[in-house]
Design goal:
The chain is an alpha+beta fold. It has six helices and eleven strands.
């Protein structure tokens, strides 16, 4: 007997609604894709809230890289260093063990955050509103979710808006260029392209071209 087709498909990523930090009050967020709409589910231990976005109403997904992950890495590294230093300077074996355990906790937090990758914020834009999608708080999950939605994007139902990830500064004639991916950045920084730019700049400096 054939299995019935699933009505919803869970998209990658899990997150928490902005402003909820503690486990007993946190509002967890997940994103599901249906046949004609996306549904964002906010759940606590006792309640669930749903927000539905029909594909025909979605104008764009907007992602922006944030420094939240780097900040957590800095905090974890600081406490890891402090507790490790305290453990090394304790004469009591019991006290040293306690500080090593605390250092291990922050080491695990640091490693986990690094494995999850860079953080971002992702919004879905409709004609009447702009809503954050907390479950797509990591660049890796946002890219996976967008890849799963590519058929809709390519069909022209949904548009993707993403600011450039890299800004490259050069000397004249084109002082600034932008790259949207790692591959595009590496292409702009290739030795052949840099040599060509230097050649053009030399001609500019010698008055071969007017700027």
């Amino acid at each position: 007997m054939a299995r019935p087709e699933r009505e919803y498909r869970r998209l990658p990523g899990r997150g928490r609604r902005r402003g909820s930090f503690f486990a007993f009050t946190a509002t967890r967020a997940g994103l599901w894709a249906g046949k004609d709409h996306l549904i964002c589910v906010f759940s606590t231990n006792y309640t669930e809230e749903y927000k539905r976005f029909y594909y025909r109403d979605i104008q764009a997904f907007v992602t922006r890289k944030t420094g939240r992950g780097a900040a957590w890495n800095a905090v974890s590294s600081l406490f890891l260093f402090l507790f490790s230093l305290l453990a090394l300077t304790r004469a009591s074996a019991t006290a040293a063990a306690v500080f090593w355990i605390l250092a291990g906790i922050f080491l695990l937090a640091l490693a986990g955050n690094l494995l999850l990758g860079p953080t971002c914020v992702c919004h879905v834009q409709t004609a009447v509103s702009r809503e954050e999608l907390p479950s797509l708080g990591r660049e890796r999950n946002a890219r996976k979710a967008i890849d799963l939605l590519k058929p809709l994007i390519e069909a022209g139902h949904v548009y993707l808006a993403q600011p450039p990830l890299f800004k490259l500064k050069w000397s004249r004639p084109n002082p600034v260029e932008y790259a949207y991916t790692d591959r595009e950045r590496d292409g702009l920084r290739s030795p052949a392209r840099i040599e060509l730019r230097d050649h053009v700049v030399q001609h500019v400096l010698h008055g071969a071209f007017r700027i």
